[in-house]
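ok here's the first one, seq then struct tokens
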Amino acid sequence: MTTAQWLGIAISVCTLVAAFATSVRWLVKHYLYELKPNAGSSLKDSVTRLEAKVEILYQMMLNKGRDE
């Protein structure tokens, strides 16, 4: 193989690695964005709302158990 062919292979491999790294970075950035609160539409906000509702239901069950 000539020097030009080796250089072409090296550039191709570097390009593929850079494309893969860029796509992984993009995915991580967008997944982490979902875990930050943003006034109601993120996954974090949904979990927080559900936790609050479960806590209310738990308190209602405790109070009903004491009444009986």
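and now the second one, same deal
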Amino acid sequence: MTELSGDEAGVRRAVDQWAVVLSAMLNGDPAPLAELYSHARDVTYMGAEGTYRIGWDATYADWSAQAEKSSGGQVEAVDVHVVVSGDLAAAQHLTRGQVRQPDGQMNETNVRESSVFRKENAAWKMIAHHADGVPYWQEAFTES
């Protein structure tokens, strides 16, 4: 196995942290997202349920609304691929786990995700995130 550069290892840790903070959000707590994300105006978020947000404030408001509607789940990032160039990095991976739906059923989830990170004050912060739409995610987070 090839040894990872310090930056690549740091981005992989950020992706691992992504799974932790996403699991927290799925269990009603969006606060950990504030540690992983940059709070800059150029942050973007394109959610699996079809949203497109620009800026930290809009992004965090969206995640907070999702957390209020969430009823449980646990995910992990697998098949992670990272590319680092200077103070920017891209990561693609699958997010797998279980998400509780509004009817109480636990469903398996397998979402393709891409994120962009920027090194800010020596820490890798998420500045862009995109997740493929999955029908039961759309149903879970869409107003009835």
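notes on #2: The helical segments are 6-26, 33-36, 56-69, 135-141. The chain has a mean pLDDT of 90.
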